[in-house]
């Protein structure tokens, strides 16, 4: 019975074509729709690209200040006002304790929906944004959706931990946490995983480790130091500073 369950494990395909200038989605690419969530940290240099690829853009509270302040310097354009008027998020969601009043007024006047959840101090602004996307996306649509979260890493560690927790809380959605030099995905143990590497923009370093609970058996191909039915847990072995050798790294999370 166990053997049958393992053999029938579906493959989840991952790729990062959203980091490329043009969104060509070859046969292996799973997600067709991108939603972008902008957090309150420095925008990554490839932000204009993500913005263009996305069908929905949500700023988490102070993330709106970042679009307002930093988008211009990431474009090659001369006209500050034009750039500011072009990048308008559809939604600004959060407890609104970080967005500046003039930024809120500006985006409100440009048609952004402002969703003030200041009464809720139990969940983070990112949680509020992802809950909204989760609620408004059918199960079928979820299979074609990938949520890109910018500014999720490289700042305050409590924020980073909360951001990683979101991957687990919403493990039925594809969510990618991004910063300028890092990308994190959850690889649910219910699946095998094929990870396609865009070597012009990502790699070669990679890490593979379980958060919260041990991984009973992990097998990989395509890495410099492959794992073979390895057990991983904090306090024992985890795989960091590994290197991607192949364009496709295949990881199998066993039981
Ligand atoms: N330094 C950081 N590192 C990582 N993520 C961050 C950081 N700062 C903000 N974020 C993310 O951006 C979201 C919005 O940020 P914002 O500053 O508006 O939050 P906040 O509610 O004011 O946070 P807090 O009250 O804890 O400072 C947060 O929910 C978090 O996900
Ligand atoms: C057990 C517990 N720990 C921390 C907070 C505080 N908190 C968590 S999310 C959030 C909103 C941040 O925008 C705040 C203030 C809480 N409510 N419950």
UniProtKB/TrEMBL annotation:
Enzyme Commission numbers on file: 2.7.6.2
BP GO terms, sorted: thiamine diphosphate biosynthetic process; thiamine metabolic process
UniProt xrefs under CDD domains: TPK (cd07995)
Gene3D superfamilies: Thiamin pyrophosphokinase, catalytic domain, Thiamin pyrophosphokinase, thiamin-binding domain
Membrane-spanning parts: none
Domain Thiamin pyrophosphokinase thiamin-binding span(s) in chain numbering: 191-250
Keyword field: ATP-binding, Cytoplasm, Kinase, Nucleotide-binding, Transferase
Entry GO terms, CC: cytosol
Record's subcellular location: Cytoplasm, Cytosol
InterPro entries for this protein: Thi_PPkinase, Thiamin_pyrophosphokinase_euk, Thiamin_PyroPKinase_B1-bd, TPK_B1-bd_sf, TPK_catalytic, TPK_catalytic_sf
Location (main, coarse): cytoplasm
GO molecular function terms listed in the Swiss-Prot or TrEMBL record: ATP binding; kinase activity; thiamine binding; thiamine diphosphokinase activity
Function: Catalyzes the phosphorylation of thiamine to thiamine pyrophosphate (TPP). TPP is an active cofactor for enzymes involved in glycolysis and energy production. Plant leaves require high levels of TPP for photosynthesis and carbohydrate metabolism.
Assigned protein family: Belongs to the thiamine pyrophosphokinase family.
Name recorded for this polypeptide: Thiamine pyrophosphokinase
Native source organism of the sequence: Leersia perrieri
Taxonomic placement: Eukaryota, Viridiplantae, Streptophyta, Embryophyta, Tracheophyta
């Amino acid at each position: 019975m166990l053997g049958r369950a393992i053999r029938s494990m579906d493959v989840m395909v991952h790729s990062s074509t959203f980091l490329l200038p043009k969104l060509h989605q070859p046969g292996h690419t799973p997600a067709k729709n991108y939603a972008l969530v902008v957090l309150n940290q420095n925008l990554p240099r490839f932000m204009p690209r993500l913005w263009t690829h996305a069908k929905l853009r949500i700023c988490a509270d102070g993330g709106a200040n970042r679009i307002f302040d930093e988008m211009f310097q990431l474009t090659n354009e001369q006209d500050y006002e034009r750039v500011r008027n072009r990048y308008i998020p559809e939604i600004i969601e959060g407890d609104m304790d970080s967005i500046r009043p003039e930024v809120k007024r500006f985006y409100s006047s440009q048609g952004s929906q402002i969703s003030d959840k200041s009464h809720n101090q139990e969940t983070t602004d990112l949680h509020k944004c992802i809950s909204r996307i989760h609620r408004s996306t059918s199960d079928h649509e979820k299979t074609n959706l990938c949520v890109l979260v910018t500014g999720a890493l490289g700042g305050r560690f409590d924020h980073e931990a909360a951001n990683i927790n979101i991957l687990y809380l919403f493990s039925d959605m594809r969510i990618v946490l991004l910063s300028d030099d890092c990308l994190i995905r959850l690889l649910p143990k219910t699946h095998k995983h094929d990870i396609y590497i865009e070597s012009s923009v990502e790699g070669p370093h990679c890490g593979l480790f379980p958060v919260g609970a041990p991984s009973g058996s992990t097998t990989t191909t395509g890495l410099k130091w492959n794992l073979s039915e390895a057990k991983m847990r904090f306090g024992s072995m985890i795989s960091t500073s590994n290197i991607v050798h192949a364009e496709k790294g295949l990881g199998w999370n066993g039981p």
